[in-house]
Amino acid sequence: PLAGALAGAAELVVMPSGVLALVPFCALAPASDPSRPLIATTAVSMAPSAAALRCMRARERAREVEGGLPAALVVGNASTLGTLGLKALTGAEEEAAAIADMLRGASDKLALDVQVLTGADARARTVLEALVVRPPALLHFAVHAQPKCLALAPVGGGEEVESDDDDGLLHKDQVHMTWLASHPVVALVGSHSGGGDLCEDGVLGLPRAFVSAGARVVLSSMWAVPDEMAKQIMVGWYRESLSGSAPSLAVALQRSICAAAQRADGSWEDPVHWAGYTLTGNAASF
Q1: Global confidence as pTM
Q2: Residues 145, 192: contact at Cβ < 8 Å?
Q3: What is the DSSP string of 92-136?
Q4: pLDDT 10s digits, 236-245
């Protein structure tokens, strides 16, 4: 029914209610052309409400901070607690390194002081300290995730827990209690990072916690995406965003997904490989 209204629209912001927050809108296709998903023509982002979107659009990225450039924190392939039984994410570590290199090579306008944490260095405690002491202008987590928490490294380095409260898991409630004065762009690439408790206002999980903490926009995944595809889409998203050719982060994500998911013959990879990514909030630019 909306096909006519969307004709010619470059971007669409969806404000879903209840269970509609679980719908991968970018994968929907009109009955007239079921093989052509919405993302082929229109970039899609989401917002909890019009009021929340207005608030997030008023949040500006920190351009200068005391002591130098704004920070960027890139976390990849954390050495999680052994008892969690999680496999290493080789592609995620490669993704983190590639994104860090792109950020370091960005223009002066987007210049950031990049810190990369991988393996046993990617501790939950270290990340929390960074959020409080020097809130980053950009946060990227290429790690295992579950609804409402990220799996990072405990102080013990992934084998043993040194204290009862140090299992390496970063929970949404911990994020919710911080204040990110830098109003960062946040990327939660891990599987199911967009999950949480379903209510009338949508999904209450990590993305909403980061929004409440001050983030301008949060990218998350509603389900598990193959490691190599996730790396390809994320690296492409940053490349498009940092090049300045994309008018918004939403369009940059659209271009990256289309490049990764559309085959040479015009057909598309299964939506499970790309349709789970969701941008929530002010998707204007870095």
Answers
A1: 0.93
A2: yes
A3: HHHHHHHHHHHHHTS-GGG--EEEEEEETT-BHHHHHHHHHHS--
A4: 999 999 998 9
